[in-house]
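Morning - iron/sulfur cluster inputs below, output right after.
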Amino acid sequence: MGLEDLNHNFLTARLEDLVRWARSHSVWPATFGLACCAIEMMATGAAHFDISRFGMEIFRGSPRQADLMIVAGRVSQKMAPVLRQVYDQMMEPKWVISMGVCASTGGMFNNYAIVQGVDQVVPVDVYAPGCPPGPETLLHAILTLHQQISTGEITRRREETGAGAELALDAPLPGRGVLHAPSHVAVGRPH
Amino acid sequence: MTTHDQDTAALAAETSEGVQEMAPRSATESAELLLEQGAVLRLPEGVTVDPGDFNVEVNPDETMIINMGPQHPSTHGVLRLMMELDGETVLRTKPVIGYLHTGMEKTGEELTYLQGGTNVTRMDYLAPLHNELVFSLAVEALLALEVPERATWIRMLMSELNRLSSHVLWMATNGMDLGAVSMMVYGWRERELVLSFFEKATGLRMNHNYIRPGGVAADLPPGWEDDVLAICDAFPPRLAEYDDLLTGQPIFRERTEGVGVLMPQEAIALSASGPILRSTGVEWDLRRDMPYMFYDQVDFDVIVGTYGDCFDRYAVRLNEMRESIRIIHQVVERMPRGDYRSQDKKVTPPPRARIDESMEALIHHFKLFTEGFKVPEGEVYTAVESPRGELGCYLVSDGSAKPYRLHIRGPSFANLQTLPIMLRGGLVADAVAVISSVDPIMGEVDR
Amino acid sequence: MSDATPAEAAPGDGDGAGMAAAEEVHGAPVTWSCGQQVLHPTREQYLDVVKALKDEGFNFCVDLTVVDYLAHPARRLPAGVGPERLELVVNLLSFEGRRRTRLRVQVPAGDPVVASLFRLYPGTEAMEREAFDMMGVRFEGHPDLTRILMPEDWEGHPLRKDYSVGRVPVQFKHPPETR
Ligand code: SF4
C-alpha cells in the first residue's frame, strides 16, 4: 500500500522512549511487606488511595513477575539473606523503593538485630521517608520512580556503573554485623 | 586459624543449638514424632490432645516437607512455616519465626520512660495504642501515679477505636486470603474512617505515641464527639454488609466451618488468649474478668464461640466490633471534663505557655525530655486485652530514668503456638485460612 | 522482706511493715510488689511449686522471661534468698480465682539451667526457647531448645547486659560516587 494512506496517522518516536513510557506505566510491585510500613503499603493499594491509578494494582506474590520491590519495614539480620534472594529472583529491569526510615537507615532501631539500611543488601532507587510514610508519601515515591524510569535515568546509571543486578554480597552471608556490598563483584549477568 | 577464629568457633559451639527448621521424618525418633504432633508445639502425651487421627506410622518416603514463607503473600508478614505433607494432608507444622526480630526489648533499655512509648508502639502495629497503654500502665504502677479520670476515659475510647480498626483490618486480610477480594476493599475503607480520626487526635495514622505515662499526649480535638459518633453510626450498617457478604455465603462457610478446630483445653494449655481462646467457648476477657481502667463501669458482652474453628473466630471478631461500638457510645456519654494528663510535676512537662514566661519551666521541660524522670525501684506486670489477646508488660526498674528490663508479652507470640495443632490433619489448602484466623502480627511475635 | 509497696497495697498485704518473709506459699517466701503477689522459690523447689500452683487452679501460664541483673545486683529479695545474676520470671494466671501470681527464681550465670515447664504448660515451649535465645538460660526437659528469634549461627545472647546494643555509629560522609 502507498504511504499516502497514512497521511496523519503515524507518530515517530525512538523505540527506547516508547519502552520507557510503557515500563513506567505498568510497574508491578512484589509484595514485600515486613512490618508496620507494610500496612500502609497495603492501605495504598486499597480503595481509598488506589494505586491502580498508576497501573500498579497488581501486587505479585511471585518475585518473578514483579518489577518493583517495595521494601516496607525493618529488615532484620535474619531476613536480609531472604530479601536478597527475592531480589535476585526478580527479572531485570527491576527497581527498589525503600519505604520508611527503618528500611532506609535502620530508623530508631539502631541495634544488633536490624540491618542499618536496606541499601547495604540491595540497590535502592527511591527512598520514602516517614515512620510510617503515609500513603501519600509512598505515592510520591512511586511517582518519582515513574519519572526516573521514563527519563531513563536509572537504566543509564546502571549501565554506566554496573550497579543494580550486579551488586553482589560477600558470600557467605555473615551471621551478624553489617552486610557488605562491595563496589562491584561482577556476576556478569546479561541485561 | 587465628585466635579470633578459634574464639568465634568456640563461642558458636557454645551458643548454637542446632537447626530451627523441621527435621525430616527419618531423622526424628518415633517417640519425638509422637510428641511432635504439633511440632513447635510438641504436646506431651496425654496432657491435652488425644492422639486422634494422627498416624505416626507414615512411610517416610511418601511425605514431603514444604516450606512456606518467610516471604509469602498469605503469611501476614514474615512468618515461615514448614509443613510435612502426606499428599495434601498436613502431618506436622513448625513455625519458624524471628524474621522481624527488631531487638525492641534491648532498645527499650536505652530509652527513657518518656521515649519508651515510641518503641513499644511499633510492636503490634495494628494495635499501637494498646501497646502504649500497657507500657504506660506499668510505669504508672511503679510510680504509684494517679491518672486523671478524663485521661483514663480517653484511653478507653482510643483503645476501643483501635480494636475496631484492628479487627476491620483483620476482616480485610482474612477476606483476601479466602478469595473474598471485595471484603478486602471494604475493610480498608472502614479502617480509613478510624484512622482519619486517629490522625486528627494524635497526629499520626499509626504508631501514635499518644498514650504516655501520666495520661495522654494531647486532649481530644474540638468536635471529637461528632467524629466519634459518626464512626459509630457508619459502622453498624457496614458490619451488616459484611454479614451479608460473608456470614451467609456458602463458599465462605465451606472454607471456614470445621477448619482449624481447637479445643478449649488445648487453647488454655498453649497459653492462647483473645479471640482464639474465646472462639473455643472459654469466657475470658480481661476487660470483664480482671478489669483495668474503667471497664467495670461500662456495659458490654464477652463474645464466645462454640466450636473453635475458623468461622467462630471470624464471628467472634465481627461481634466484638459491635461490642466495641457499644462501649464507645458509653464512653462518649460519660467523658468527664478535666485534665488529660496528670499534673504531677515529676512526669508532666509544664504547659507550653509557661515555657515562654518562666526560666524554671523551660529548664524543667528541658530536663524532663533530655533526662527523663526517675522511676522507683521495683518490678511490675500489667496486662490489657488487646485485639489479639492478653498483652502484658513486665517492667523492672533500678531507680534510674530508663527501664532496667522491658519485656512485652505479645499475644500473637503465644497464639502462634496453636497453629500446628489447628493445621494437623487438615488440608494444605486450608492452611491459609487457619493462619489468617490466628491473626498473627509478626512485629509483636518477634519484637 | 516485704517490698515497700506503694500506697495502694494489695488486699492480701497483711503483714504491713512486717519484715522477714512470714508469708509462704508452698514453701516459697512471698513478697508483694505494687500489689502483686511474688513467690521466690529456689531452683530446686521451682517445679514443685509450679505443680502445686497448677493444682491450686493456676491453669494458664501467661508469660515466662528472664532478667539479667548484672548491672543491678542489689535488688530487694526476701530474707534467705540469695541474689544471682539471672532471674527467671514466670507469670501464672488462674481463670477461676481471677488472680495472678508471679514466680522469681534465681539462676546462677555459671550454671544457667532450670527445669522446663513444658510438661505442665505446653504453651511455655516458645517462651522458653525465647528465654534461651535471648538470655542463655537452658531448660532441662525442653523438647526442642533451639534459637527462635536470632539466626542459628548467632553468637551470644543479645539481651544479656554484657552484650552490647550493637549500635552502628552514624557517619556523615560524602555520598558515594556511583549508584
Ligand atoms: S519505618 Fe516506622 S512504620 Fe516503618 S517499619 Fe519502621 S518503625 Fe515501622
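Note: The interface with chain B takes residues 31-36, 38-40, 42-43, 46-48, 59, 61, 73-74, 76-79, 82-83, 86, 108-114, 131-132, 134 of chain A (CB under 8 Å).

O.
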